[in-house]
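User: Let's play a game. I give you a shape written as tokens, and you guess the letters that built it. Ready? Here's round one.
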């Protein structure tokens, strides 16, 4: 292994970035790179901190830049969904890569997430959601999340 390979292996921030912004009274987060066991915690921490700091009514999570997602990445999406429901806010995923959509479909999780093709459509959905409305539960499995 050369020096560059060692640096990449030890630097998840170089393989994954998350940016968080506030739009009106909700959060827009953008994830890019590999959402895996080394980066899922970073995404969760940043979103959690933003939620606590702003008391926002919702979260749009743009996944269009995600190139890979493992079980820890899926786990953090489920954790964010739980937290949004606890806070009676709305979580909308946007720009979901086909591979991630397939993973969610295979696991039966696709039906519990609000998903829009673009950030703009996701923003409209959050804006239309009253603060007191929690994300819909569409199956018995959703109730156990």
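Assistant: Ready! My guess for every position:
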């Amino acid at each position: 292994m050369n020096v560059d390979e060692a640096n990449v292996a030890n630097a998840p921030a170089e393989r994954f970035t998350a940016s968080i912004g506030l739009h009106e009274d909700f959060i827009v987060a953008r994830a890019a790179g590999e959402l895996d066991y080394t980066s899922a915690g970073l995404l969760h921490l940043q979103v959690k901190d933003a939620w606590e700091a702003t008391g926002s009514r919702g979260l749009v999570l743009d996944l269009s830049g995600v190139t890979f997602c493992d079980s820890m990445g899926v786990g953090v999406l489920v954790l964010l969904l739980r937290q949004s429901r606890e806070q009676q806010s709305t979580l909308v995923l946007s720009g979901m890569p086909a591979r991630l959509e397939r993973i969610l479909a295979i696991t039966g999780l696709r039906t519990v997430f609000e998903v829009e093709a673009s950030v703009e459509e996701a923003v409209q959905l959050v804006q239309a959601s009253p603060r007191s409305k929690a994300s819909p539960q569409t199956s018995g499995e959703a109730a156990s999340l």
